[in-house]
Write a structure and sequence with these properties.
The protein has about 325 residues and is of the alpha/beta class. The chain has one domain: Alpha-Beta Barrel (TIM Barrel), CATH 3.20.20.70. Helix content is about 45%, strand content about 15%. It has an 8-stranded parallel barrel with strand order 3-4-6-7-8-9-12-13, surrounded by 7 helices. Strands 1-2 form a two-stranded antiparallel sheet. Helix 1 links the parallel strand 3 and strand 4. Helix 2 packs across helix 3. The chain binds flavin mononucleotide (FMN). Flavin mononucleotide binds next to strand 6, strand 13 and helix 9.
């Protein structure tokens, strides 16, 4: 019996990937995550703004004029160089796949950074396309087109697999993922979590709300994984957002995921969460008589009309209608 899986063309010893977060911003930490059993690691994101700033510094001598600008530019440059070092050092210390990550929101010159990331030895690159559109003049499909343009340009620069991490604010993830599939995406992560904001009513100030998810947050990713894996079966998917228990891992695979990306649970429970979760998934697989995850991946997805009904609107009508 095997718990090995493949995601985005990468072979993983198990489906638990550590998602991009502060815990993956340090090579020694990444080694500890590997030793604790992680299947792969997504490094903390490098932000598009940092890359753009460095490019400006290198191409526009006027950017050195103001002391403040210089300081900012230096900071940007420094961050980019540190990031390349993080990839190199993580690769030197770890044997599991190391996935670099860029948080981006425009299709610009920064995409060439992907070449440096590939050269530094990253096994894959995840693009966290973080953008919310609020303009009244918004043209339908602009947000989706942005994702496709960014992916196409990055994929032109590199040979390593390019993964797209999507926000849940899309009108039709199926249509977008189908397009991404045609433009060379090696995998898709459902979903990125937007910065959680809240209001302190005493001070009347915006404050950061709780940064971590719970298992209750999983349902959005499960729903769309179940729908997308049925409609765009050839696209490898990873669930992110609300995976907190071994059962959440199994649910994600049943809906069609090849892997899960976890962050909150590692912050809350530590790296010691990983090994028992893997063992429990293995034990479940054995009890159910499955040789590997491929044998049950997508078993609960929308290909079955009854599951489709549960994942789509009809069930909502029945369920909500019965609560008095
Ligand atoms: C403290 C923290 C920092 C994060 N930083 C990033 C980041 O730099 N890039 C990114 O793509 N996602 C980032 N995330 C989002 C996670 O990768 C993940 O998608 C999200 O937390 C949902 O997964 P979870 O329920 O396992 O936490 C961060 C999450 C946390 C909690």
């Amino acid at each position: 019996m095997s718990i090995e899986t493949t995601f985005a063309g990468l072979t993983l010893r198990n489906p638990i990937i550590i998602g991009s977060c502060g815990l993956t911003a340090n090579a020694a930490n990444n080694k500890a995550l590997e030793q604790a059993g992680a299947g792969a690691i997504v490094l903390k994101s490098l932000f598009e703004e940092n890359i753009t700033r460095q490019t400006e510094m290198l191409t526009d001598p006027a950017a050195h004029g103001e002391a403040a600008d210089y300081l900012q530019g230096y900071l940007g440059e420094h961050i980019v160089d540190e990031y390349i070092e993080l990839i190199r050092e993580s690769k030197r210390l770890c044997t599991i796949p190391i996935i670099a990550s860029i948080a981006c929101h425009t299709d610009g010159e920064w995409v060439r950074m992907a070449e440096k990331i590939e050269k530094a030895g990253a096994d894959a690159l995840e693009l966290n396309v973080m953008t919310i559109r609020t303009d009244k003049g918004y043209a339908d499909g602009e947000l989706e087109k942005m994702h496709v343009d960014i992916l196409r340009h990055v994929a032109e620069c590199v040979k390593i697999p390019v993964i797209v991490k999507l926000g849940a604010n899309l009108s039709n993830p199926v249509a977008l993922i189908d397009k991404l599939c045609g433009c060379g995406a090696a995998g898709v992560v459902l979903f990125n979590r937007f910065y959680p904001t809240d209001i302190d009513v005493e001070k009347m100030e915006f404050v950061a709300s709780h940064p971590f998810t719970t298992s209750a947050d999983l349902s959005t990713a499960l729903r769309w994984t179940g729908i997308v894996s049925s409609a765009v079966g050839q696209m490898p998917l990873a669930v992110s957002g609300g995976v907190h228990t071994w059962q959440d891992v199994v649910k994600s695979i049943l809906c069609g995921a090849s892997a899960v990306e976890v962050s909150s649970v590692i912050y809350e429970c530590g790296v010691q969460w990983i090994a028992p979760a893997i063992e429990a998934v293995e034990a479940w697989q054995q009890k159910q008589g499955y040789d590997d995850a491929a044998a049950y991946r997508g078993k609960m997805n929308a290909r079955d009309p009854e599951h489709a009904e549960r994942l789509l609107r009809t069930q909502f009508l029945k369920y909500m209608g019965t609560i008095k």
